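Hi W.,

Here's what went into the run:
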Amino acid sequence: MSLASDIELRSGRRAWLSEQSGAIGLAGIVIIFWIVFASWAPGFVSPFNLFAISRTLAIDIVIGFSTMVVLATGGMNLAIGAIGVCSVMLAGYLMQKLGVPYPLALTVALLLGALLGWANGVAIVRSGVNSFIITLASASLYTGGMLILSKAVIYNALPPAIAAFGRMRFGFVSPLLIVALAIGAALVVLFRFTALGREILAAGANARAAQLSGVPVSRAIIVAHTLSGLLAAAAGLMLLSRLGAAMPSIGEDWLLPSFLAPVLGGALLSGGSISVVGAMIGALLVTTIRSGLLIMQVGNFWLLLFLGMMLLLAVLLDRYRTVYAERRSLGRRA
Amino acid sequence: MRVTIDSIGKSFPGVVALGGVSFEVHPGEIHALMGENGAGKSTLIKIVTGVYRPDRGRLLIDGAAANFASPRDAIAAGISAVHQERNLIPRFSVGENIMIENLPIRRGLVDYGEAHAQARRFLDMIDPSIDTRAEVRRLSVAQMQIVEIAKALSLEAGLLLLDEPTASITDHEAQALFAVLRRLRSEGKAIVFVSHKLEEVIALCDRVTVLRDGKVAAAGELIAAMSRSRIVSAMIGREERVAEIGPRTFARGTPALEVRGLATSLGHKDVSFTLRQGEILGLYGLVGSGRTELARALIGDARILAGEIRLKGAPISIADVSDAVRRHRIGYISEDRKNEGLILAHPIRANIAITIWPRLASRLGLLTRRLEERAATPLARKLDIRTPSLEQQVGKLSGGNQQKVSIAKWLAASVDVLIIDEPTVGIDIRTKTAIHELIAEITRAGVSVMLISSDMPEMITLADRILVMRDFALVGEIENERRYEPMSRRIMGFIHAGLEAGESQQEASHG
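Here's what came out:
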């Protein structure tokens, strides 16, 4: 049968390579930055800094995933920082004020994240309003609610196991990074090998066509937002472990890196196409630049400018890719 | 206006779209431009209208070389066109869209009253029922096409190019368009007319140029001197195959889908009919008569207010599209393949398997590429989808192959009832026959098909029975004898009959 023949396999492999070409290019850029930073600032590759990088990277990766799963549907979630901090503050409150054992407290906090994400998804599907507006509103709503309920206190008398996990190290790798990689592996399985993940991507690529093919598009959007909330909560709790304290200021600076990682990694803003591996490498680039500029004692102001520029570049790249993809997919009709 | 196309060539990466094409369009003639998909017609039109620049050759207008840098230049030179793809702004009103190239200005501001009045004039030539103040995005596909035509007419150009203008409109509106074109011809305008429908080309045009693989296969031949089969063989390089869908036998007794007294949120009041197992039931009607909307209601995409739907005798309720598809096995192929039918950026494999993802998943819930391939490969082979690989993006396929993928995904879902809306819009004559055979073939395997088509020959070739719809109600039912003349006359009779006549016939058809 010709369809299963050698030609097919070869073209499949070529397609896979061209799919990954973005990730490979991005990895090249990361390597260049590492060489530059390592030669200009030897402290960059010190065991201490490598450990610091692995901890930050882990959190940046999960923040990026949180936005990525919603980008898959062609939507966005501006409330991930708000969801993250709500979960963190709930975990802090449960452990410090109520003395709830930490496994239970962390589980409840994760569930809260999923619940807040689910509420976003339901609001988007029911109202038919763009996810941008809904999550812009819910971000303020969640943060405001959290500040009112918590009175903006800091919970810093947490069970020692929390901070101990954040300080733990295998060589110069934090176990947090292993958690992030495990989440990444789960997402690869979801989006590549399950009907649910494929439905989310189909809904993002062409919602109407997916719907008319029997895909429950509304459910796919709600699931994506629930997952996004869960991942935001996970990122928050990972940060909690790194800081050893639950602070109401967590999540304020997540928005930029949350878009940077998946978009640099090749997710189409119009939906339907994401790359888990790409998002991880994108997060690595963000972390690398942040750490490198820190080591070289370049101020935070410059960092912001630099990251902003990168997002702009990534978006321009996305734009170029969309136009290119369209041209290729529509072919040349004569 | 005399337009001379002088050995024009155009290449795209990897494809020679036009390889030195020459012919001439005279003032006061309707010049047919024919050829299969990919023959180079649309590329040529885009060169004449300044969308593309030719790589080689010259374009002469009344003997003077024209060098268009943009579509604006072409419009300024007196050339207007209806392109195959839509060029309307969805959120603007019909009137604004029609007049967009020269909005009337008074004291520095747009004079909307005047704009709508002028737009009205051009719209009235084809279809007076469209409101110039309606937003374009609220219109049906056919109404949008009419707005496109009115927009092209509004430029009152010396050369008018129409690329498949009748692809999505009904005979009735097409006749109105042809009357306008004949009038423009008598005023000395030059008209280039692209169509897959041979009947209308022969009835309307004076001369014909046929393109094949980017080259001229017949240049400016008189239509009167060309027989139908000569045009076709110039197009495809061999003799035409007559659509032969074989003898039709199906168990006349077993109803697959019964609809009784259906009322929908889209405006149907009391629709009743029966679709028998293995039957092709045609649904004919003018644009806006509620055919597509009926399909939407049947697949759960619109609210059903009253009435009963029975599937194989058992009453069902349809909650949403996914319920219709996955539980009741009713499928729908939209007339708008690009936006509603297929996910163009995804591979053929995924587009076929999408209807059965949950069913395909292994016991662990895993859905691998291999499982999808196993489901899609036999269908791709059976339907003869021409592609080097199932990993090919659907957007890269020809229209005919895309339509085969649309059908394949419903065969994968093993639907019992398949509603097909305008199956061969914009599909060339060779593939059209293959699609027709395919539709007949799937009914032999037990699928019951409801066929919505504005293409009368297609309807009469395929349907076993034809329902006629007008104003969201069924007004007639005809057993198809497959003879074009009497059948088309009877169908149009139902459509144009007075209200009382229509109602009494509806009574009769229910009896």
